[in-house]
Amino acid sequence: MEIFALSALEREALMLSLRVALWCVAISLPFGILTAWVLARCDFPGKAFLDGLVHLPLVLPPVVVGYALLVLFGQQGFVGRWLATSFGLEIAFTWKGAVIASAVMAFPLMVRAIRLSIEAVDTGLEAAARTLGAGPFGIVFSVTLPLAWPGILTGMVLAFARSLGEFGATITFVSNIPGETRTLPLALYGLTQVPGSEGAATRLVIISTLLAFVALIASEIMARRIRKRLAA
Amino acid sequence: MIPKTRDRRRRGLWACAAMALCLMAPIASASQMPVAAQRIVVAAAASMLPSINQAIAEFHAEQALTAPPPVRVSAIYASSGALARQIISGGPALLFISADPRWMDAVERAERLIPGSRRELARNALVLAVPRKSKLSLDLKPGADLTRILAGGRLVTADPDHAPLGMHARAALKWLGAWAMIEDRLVRVADAAQARILLERGAVAAGVLYASDVALNPRLRSLGTFPAVSHPPSLYEIARIGNGLLEASTTAAATRFEDWLSGPRGQAILRAHGFAPPEGH
């Protein structure tokens, strides 16, 4: 039974990964929904530019994103210095930085999923709501978003999973600090650098795989329930 | 409509042809090489990056003037622990330069070293470094209040789990009596080269770095050298790696670069980069 017990390092990395991933979803969700709605429902000059900007982290090497974040949020970066002097907030090399790194990397995935489901909402229903006297906010919150809920959930799960797997931007931006920024992939990377730690590395591989699998199955079950409720 | 489609199709064909050319280009240029060069890979501790790069450039320049076939050296840089791990799992390096005997021992235990090829290459020291503009100062002796002078800032060094710089920095900070206080302010990066870059960028307040990375560095300043007793010796060794069934010419090429690096030219480059000579020199 002993082999099923998590070591201190494993528990620490696992809990940190979960904390970072949950925060990542929480802080990117409002921005994700807003961006997705703008991209799906609005037409304005520069829309292609915004679209490109949102998708940039998807195609950029993660190290580039991590380095850019370090330059912006580091001790010498202008955002980092401003946050430190005005709010006493330290981002670089802390778990908050890890949240920001994975939120940036996960953002395009979240926006894509939500945008597709908003685009699929029948504009006729929105028009009907308008004729019944609903204001623009009322339409979004009582018609569009409830109908787009499966896509929003998919976006959340994708962002959560992307955050669990985030490596390149994280290690470049916030380094590999035990208990602070050493999430599961970073702990695994650390172990693969040390000769003779194959056993410990294998255990982390299994833990990461199980965690990702559980997240996927849970999302599938939730999505099925929502589809049933929407159909009813 | 019809000419348009044909136009489009023709354009597609051109694109395909261009792509095929791009794919074939490297093959063509490789086959045009006059004498087949002996290619060898050296896996070197990241703290040796500037000096080995220079050594390779000078070695190549010298090769161009002397006997063919030329030897072409390419280098992989990482922490010695990471490199040892790669070599043990069958990485393609023919030479290994380790910054700590512990990782050379690991490769030797895995029976990947060519017996008798292991020799000492250089020595290094550990310093407490800050960006040149920094106003910090500290008397580097046991009991020195490192946390106070950092004033909430962070200290960078390499990962104490596998990078020799980090392993030695941990010992040195324990000798200082500062390890317990500093541990959670420590930024551990993958290797010595990254630690140096982070401090040069000013992303952290101070760092425990190699003397060779600070001595001639216009962007960094040393607050003091950790005494030799405070940490295991920073001892660089080089050895040849047995990589399956090697052709004699390949082995000879690896030996040639190893000898060159241990010889007067190689040693002069290492001295110029701030490394101390191996014991007995």
Describe the structure.
The complex is a heterodimer of chains A (232) and B (281). Helices cover 79% and strands 0% of the residues of chain A. Chain A has 11 helices and no strands. Chain B is built from 11 helices and 10 strands. In chain B, helix 3 runs parallel beside helix 4. Chain B starts with a helix and ends in a 9-residue tail after the last helix. The mean pLDDT of chain B is 87. Classes of the chains: A mainly alpha (232), B alpha/beta (281). At the A-B interface, helix 10 of A face helix 3 and strand 7 of B.
Task: Lay out the secondary structure.
The complex is a heterodimer of chains A (232) and B (281).
Chain A: H1 8-41, H2 47-59, H3 62-73, H4 78-87, H5 95-119, H6 123-131, H7 136-147, H8 149-165, H9 168-174, H10 184-193, H11 198-231
Chain B: H1 2-31, E1 38-45, H2 49-65, E2 71-78, H3 80-88, E3 95-98, H4 101-109, E4 119-124, E5 126-131, H5 146-150, E6 155-158, H6 164-176, H7 179-182, E7 186-189, H8 192-200, E8 206-210, H9 211-214, E9 220-225, E10 234-240, H10 248-262, H11 264-272
Parallel strand pairs in B: 1-2, 1-3, 6-7, 6-8
Antiparallel strand pairs in B: 3-10, 4-10, 5-8, 5-9
Helix pairs in contact in B: 2-11, 3-4
Query: Which residues of chain B sit in consecutive blocks of at least 5 with pLDDT less than 50?
Result: none
Q: Which pair of chains has the greatest number of interface residues, and how are they split between the two chains?
A: A-B, 18 and 27 residues
Query: What is the helix fraction of residues of chain A, given as a range?
Result: over 70%
Tally of separate helices of chain B? 11
Would you tell me the overall average pLDDT of chain B? 87
Total E-strand runs of chain B: 10
What ranges of chain A have pLDDT less than 50 throughout 5 or more consecutive residues? Answer: none
Task: Tell me the number of strands of chain A.
Answer: 0
Order of helices and strands of chain B: HEHEHEHEEHEHHEHEHEEHH
Largest sheet of chain B: 5 strands, mixed
Radius of gyration of chain B: 24 Å
What is the SS-derived class of chain B?
alpha/beta
